User: Fold these one by one.
Assistant:
Number 1:
Amino acid sequence: MIRQYRTFIGAVAIIFCTTMLILAMYTYTVNTSLGIIREDIKQSNLNRLRIFVHTLDINVEQMDLLSLAVNTDSKMKLLKSVDLMNDYEQDQLLLDISEKMKLQRFALGWDMHISVYSMMLGKWAVSSPLQDPPPGSVTDGRWLLNEDRKAFSMFRTHDRHVIHVSFPQSNVERLLIPPSWTTTILFSTIRIFR
């Protein structure tokens, strides 16, 4: 009886072995491909992270330099003797400084705010997101996150004025957004095949 079905059993065995071989090769190919995709995504994310850190460093460094450069402006030097000016001259000086700060604000191409607090006048000479005078306990030139306003800010204290530079937390969040929808699709694909 086995002789009658020997050809059939041989054909089934060959089909079974071929199917198992194809299945093994397919599994190996899929796993290898997914490994390559995972590695590519990992490398891509590392590269994006390096670019993000570099961009953030450059922008923060430029704002640091801007806070130092603002102090060398001729109008800022006049702010030291603002108490010797009449009301019209004070208003004109504050207007000039405010206009210069607005121009500086857009120079970096980043959403930021630069303001000046005059200790002589006891008020912000250039409009500030802060309502109160600058805190006295802040370390000069150190960036801090203000969680209430969701903004990073830094103060530079000079002879008779304080320069306040700030930028919203959303600037950092925008840098972290994936460049395209392809990254999301690739992550989804990897989760499916796990």
Number 2:
Amino acid sequence: MAVLGHAVVMGGGVAGLLAAAALAEHSEKVALVDRDPMIVDGPETFAPRRGVPQGETVHRLLAVGETRMEQLLPGVREDLLAAGATPRATVSRDAEAGIDTPGTLWLHRPLLEGVLRQRVLALPGLETVQGAVGGLLTSEDGRTVTGVSIRGGETPELHADLVVDAAGRSSRAGSWMPGLGAERPRTLGTRVHVAYTCQRLRLPESALSAGLEAVSIPPSEAVPFTIDLEPCGSGEHLLAVAGTSRNVPPTDLPGLLDLIARLPASEDGAGTNSAVLRRAVEVAEPVGEPAAAKAAGAHRQLWESVVDAPEGLVHVGDAAAMFTPLYGQGMAMAAVGAVALRDHVAALGTADRAGAGAADGLAAPFQQALAELLDPAWESTLARDLSLPGAERLLDGAAVEELPDRRDLAPALSASR
């Protein structure tokens, strides 16, 4: 029996697709809203989306993310392999061994999103709505979110028992809170000025030694960039050059090749890797143009600390916590959050909630539980970011000497909730 009648998910990226999968199990109908068309047929299925400008840059799926996706969509790993993902030759045998454990696949984000769209939109009760969410619909007293208004689409309003904010870094939910009688969420963050450029390559079979999957070179004084060459699925490799602390890599292929030519030529470990990388890129065939992206650092909205937050609205993925992209945590934590959402919605159906609305009592406990799940990855990101030269700590967008523990900013849940 469905716990919810209708649910709406704002955002059709990885977090939104996984949230929709989580809700489909316990809802009669789930509407997925995004500006981009949700394509599931033809070659455009696996093309980068306009709404994900960083989509062609390096993305890695950690083991915990792969495991959670499989829990939501059984068989999705086999679907990814069929679509062109490359299995890793050496993988962790314990998918739960830690938030930074690599997964079992090499892939690129458009391939992952394409497979997720195909799987999720085939679920019963799923529909897509193209357009932008312009605001929230609420009950007369403003205490419960009852749907969303849509701009630029054929459907002006969608009504729902539950609205999920998976709109990522573009989410405007924080600015909507004062209009609902709630405070904006406090925010924590870092500023490390990440910049990266990626180029897809097709390598001859002889380009890398037998058994060598990937090459990684750490930054040095001469070349202050992390340089990786790794499979990205469909028989291709991705050359990824990333800098921090305002070190911006070239954004054109000749510039990237010149950078690699300047790598140390010594025969120690790093030098050997440099020679392997130089030989590989010399014989590689470029696929498309380089893709560049920048990110300030990490950003976390403390939704669990919002006083008088409305019922019927929850926040997942980058709308809750955006991780510095160097560490590959974002997609994994979106999957962790989606499984938690599924379990909390399922629990509504077993609780005694006489007289409650369909999703009453969900928002605050879910955001609190999600916060606890995010903590290990967040602390890992902070530790790494703050080890970088010139890193800044941010509280509510302003630089501070020390970051408080997020628990110090989160009031105890009101007994009325």
